[in-house]
Design a protein that fits this description.
The complex is a heterodimer of chains A (603) and B (193).
Chain A (H helix, E strand, L loop, with lengths): L2 H29 L5 H17 L9 H25 L15 H12 L9 H4 L2 H31 L9 H27 L10 E3 L5 E6 L17 E6 L1 E3 L5 H10 L20 H25 L3 H27 L3 H6 L22 H14 L14 H12 L10 H21 L4 E2 L2 E2 L2 H27 L1 H4 L7 H14 L15 H31 L15 H35 L3
Helix pairs in contact in A: 1-9, 1-12, 2-7, 3-4, 3-6, 3-18, 4-18, 6-7, 6-8, 6-18, 7-8, 7-9, 8-9, 9-10, 9-12, 10-12, 10-13, 10-19, 12-13, 13-17, 13-19, 14-15, 14-19, 15-17, 15-18, 17-19
Chain B lengths: L4 H30 L1 H4 L3 E4 L2 E5 L39 H17 L22 E2 L1 H15 L3 H10 L1 E2 L10 E3 H14 L1
Antiparallel strand pairs in B: 1-2, 3-5, 4-5
Helix pairs in contact in B: 4-5
Classes of the chains: A mainly alpha (603), B mainly alpha (193).
């Protein structure tokens, strides 16, 4: 740990919280469709979009219609992403002449991008044509994020309306999220990132002459069928090769990087995501990118408070998120700063100073060092972003536990844009219910009585992700196809699988990337998890929104549990932590905890 | 049930044009006008030849050059077409073995450098393309390069200092040295004699 590291973490938190109110108020204006400079500039475009799409944006939808519109829109979006990947060899904007993506990988990527997960089974620069990246992936980066925001806004209307039949118009919420929030912020961020060195071009990769020539290396030898040849023991046969050049992969990266951060998508332009120097070139670029991850999720808390007419409620949820986040971030920074004993005994310097960032630099970039790598790992899994600037598989075992557990908490500590807050509101409902049982009152939240139906819907939303995570992990460790993907030996190998299903089952998208997941088994299993995790949460949330909107508002009485106090924040944190801990401690003990104990026992 | 299918299709087409075509083209236009060198990969040109990107590291193994981070890309190191980390876990024996071998290579190249080795010189980066090393890692190599080039260590130390980037605004990121630019400068100085 260094003072500079703590200072950067503190600076991050201050800037994040300071931006929550102005951006949150702006977004409330957008969703309440208030007049202002935004409407003066955007209204013609917004109206044009509705006309071209043939929708009536003013019609109020019942929750069932809202959900169907959302599902249709996501389904056709998924089919387009699938088709683009399968047909990219015949389509334009493919200067590297990349071939079609395999069916299982294309399915996985399509579900991954519509569900706002952006798990990447593929390697970006070596798999996807510029056209696929733009028309498939960038588009879904926007609209899957806007979908999450729309569902959240519908739920908020459930609380703010009384005895109403509708919860808003999906098309209006979708278009306004995209046009007034995601697009302008992305444009600003993309240009800022280009100024730092993120590439944005449609040219093919330039070639550089290496300074030290030639570079000799071994490469796998391929047979006449194009498959690598293996020797008698099964290891690949290599042949000598030599080069004097370096091909520098470029592309329209900045535009995609901006929205993958802001929309909590996380699918990188390049294989190593924001660890790639052309995707995240400088510490300033890194600060902007990591800020962009939590920017909208944090501000939406304020939007929520404004729209229900009590900003204290929004601050309470933001406080709960920030407390859990800060505690886990600090613990990750502490564990990652303990030098890996195996490396120190090999002869590595164990003491950081101003000229030396520290010992555990495997899988990290020097410009980010330890503090920024840990900050990113925590932020990206607190939000359901999943982009990385360091390799999580190479983190110290207890540090790796933090991102894993943040996902397993259900992506509610900030979480995805929209989806994180609606997940947290589900936990708030359960917290009110539990507190209500303890003090013997009918539970109510924000003026709405919570009956059996509401609790059932909230319970479904909370219980489905653990089912997917633990069920999926259990299946994968039992079948040969699942175990075959493991890269690291011992408990870390189990952690790789647990991490993958935690990521897919909560729509995060980051990975312990040693796992070879671009196989039919993982592409299919993780694809299914991502679909269930997204839509089986969104549908109960919309059903809940419909029920709440139809209900009467009960005025607060002496028996009402106030839900903006530090006491309630504590109860809420307790609920999230208890559910997350009770469900996942056994699995975590077998993975990162076992790995940690063995590492420090020198075994 | 199907009432919203056609609107969904049409909406996807409209939003695809807006976010998938207009937005990236607009960003590209602004980028190419305002920051053309950055937008095209920050390429370094020497004698009318592209010799690399300021932001992408290159493999160095000759004792007369500063060495950068070990790279886990395949098949060759610093393959910018296939960025990749090693993904070796902290307790994986393969990690300790690789680190031990790299430390031995460093000490074989310079028997005088016996102190603890800066980690960035012997661990692979996240991208396999890291252009930087820490100041400590540059200092560690000075005696080797001084001998290989017949230069005074003080001259090399001054060159390293000249290529050291401090944390941005004094707070963001780590102090670091760009290996490719440092080596290009070494060669340039050597040519001038």
């Amino acid at each position: 740990m260094t003072a500079l590291g703590w200072l950067q973490i503190a600076l991050y938190l201050v800037v994040l919280i300071a931006l929550a109110k102005p951006l949150g108020a702006y977004m409330a204006d957008v969703y309440e469709d208030r007049p202002g400079w935004r409407k003066r500039i955007g209204a013609p475009i917004e109206g044009g979009i509705y006309r071209l799409a043939g929708v009536d944006s003013s019609r109020d939808m019942r929750w069932t219609e809202y959900a169907l519109a959302m599902l249709w829109f996501n389904l056709v979006g998924g089919l387009v992403v699938y088709a683009l990947q399968r047909l990219q060899a015949f389509l334009p904007l493919n200067p590297q002449s990349l071939s079609a993506v395999s069916p299982d990988s294309a399915f996985n990527t399509a579900t991954s991008f519509i569900s706002n997960t952006n798990w990447q089974g593929y390697s970006g620069e070596a798999t996807m044509s510029y056209l696929t990246q733009m028309l498939g992936l960038t588009v879904q980066n926007f609209v899957s994020a806007a979908t999450g925001m729309a569902v959240l806004v519908a739920l908020i209307r459930g609380f703010s309306r009384k005895q109403a039949t509708g919860i808003g118009n999906f098309w209006a919420d979708l278009v306004r999220s995209t046009l007034y929030i995601l697009l302008p912020l992305s444009l600003l961020l993309a240009v800022a990132l280009v100024s730092q060195g993120v590439v944005q071009t449609f040219d093919a990769s330039p070639t550089a002459q290496l300074v030290e020539q030639p570079l000799n290396y071994d490469q796998p030898k391929n047979g006449p069928d194009g498959q690598p040849i293996k020797d008698a023991s099964g290891s690949p046969v290599t042949e000598h090769a030599s080069t004097t050049e370096q091909s520098i992969a470029v592309g329209p990266a900045a535009s995609q990087v901006a929205i993958k951060q802001l929309g909590t998508n996380g699918g990188g332009f390049f294989n190593v995501n924001s660890a790639h120097p052309l995707e995240n070139p400088t510490p300033l670029a890194n600060f902007l990118e990591v800020l962009a991850i939590l920017l909208i999720p944090a501000a939406l808390c304020y939007t929520f408070g404004r729209m229900i007419g009590d900003t204290r409620q929004g601050w309470a949820l933001l406080a709960a998120m920030t407390v859990v986040f800060t505690a886990l971030l600090a613990s990750a920074y502490i564990t990652e700063s303990v030098p890996n004993p195996a490396l120190v005994s090999a002869g590595i310097d164990g003491t950081p100073n101003a000229n030396y960032p520290g010992t555990n630099l495997e899988g990290k970039e020097v410009r980010f060092g330890i503090a920024n790598s840990v900050l990113w790992a925590t932020v990206t899994t607190a939000a359901s972003n999943g982009s990385v600037n360091a390799m999580h598989d190479s983190l110290m075992p207890l540090t790796g536990l933090v991102p894993m557990w943040l996902m397993q908490l259900g992506e509610v500590i900030f979480g995805g844009v929209g989806s994180g807050l609606y997940g947290m509101i589900m936990f708030a409902i359960i917290a009110v219910f539990i507190a209500g049982l303890m003090i013997g009152r009918t539970p109510e939240y924000l003026g709405k009585k919570l009956g059996a139906f509401e609790i059932k819907m909230a319970s479904i939303a909370i219980l489905i992700p653990p089912l997917l995570v633990l069920g999926g992990t259990a299946v994968a460790v039992m079948v040969e196809a699942g175990r075959a993907g493991i890269a690291n030996p011992g408990a870390q190998g189990f952690s790789e699988i647990l991490y993958a299903f935690s990521s897919a089952g909560n729509n995060n998208g980051s990975a312990f990337a040693g796992l070879s997941a671009n196989t039919p088994f993982y592409n299919t299993a993780l694809g299914i998890c991502m679909l269930f995790a997204r839509y089986w949460l969104a549908i109960p949330v919309l059903a809940l929104a419909g029920a709440l909107a139809a209900a009467k508002t009960v005025p607060a009485s002496e028996g009402t549990l106030p839900t903006h106090t530090p006491l309630f924040v504590t109860v809420l944190i307790g609920t999230v932590i208890t559910v997350g801990a009770l469900t996942f401690v056994p699995a975590l003990a077998l993975g990162p905890v076992a790995e940690h104990l063995q590492l420090f026992a020198g075994k | 049930m199907f009432a919203n299918l056609i609107p969904a299709l049409r909406m996807l087409v409209v939003l695809s044009v807006l976010t998938g075509v207009a937005y990236p083209l607009l960003v590209t236009g602004i980028a190419q006008l305002a920051f053309p060198w950055r937008a095209n990969g920050s390429l370094l040109i020497e004698n009318q030849k592209v010799v690399g990107s300021e932001l992408i590291g290159q493999p160095f193994a000759d004792p007369k050059y500063f060495w950068g981070r070990p790279s886990a890309t395949s098949p060759q190191p610093y393959n910018s077409g296939a960025s990749s980390g090693s993904n070796l876990g902290a307790r994986n024996p393969a990690l300790a073995e690789a680190v031990t071998a790299r430390i031995k290579a460093l000490r074989d190249a310079d028997p005088e450098a016996t102190g603890p080795v800066p980690a960035d010189l012997v661990t692979t980066s996240a991208s396999g393309l890291d252009p930087h090393i820490s100041v400590a890692a540059a200092d560690y190599q000075i005696s080797r390069i001084a001998k290989a080039r017949g230069l005074a260590p003080e001259a090399l130390r001054a060159l390293v200092a000249q290529h050291t980037q401090p944390p941005t605004f004094g707070v963001l990121g780590e102090k670091r040295v760009n290996v490719l630019q440092l080596n290009l400068n070494l060669d340039r100085a050597a040519r001038k004699g």
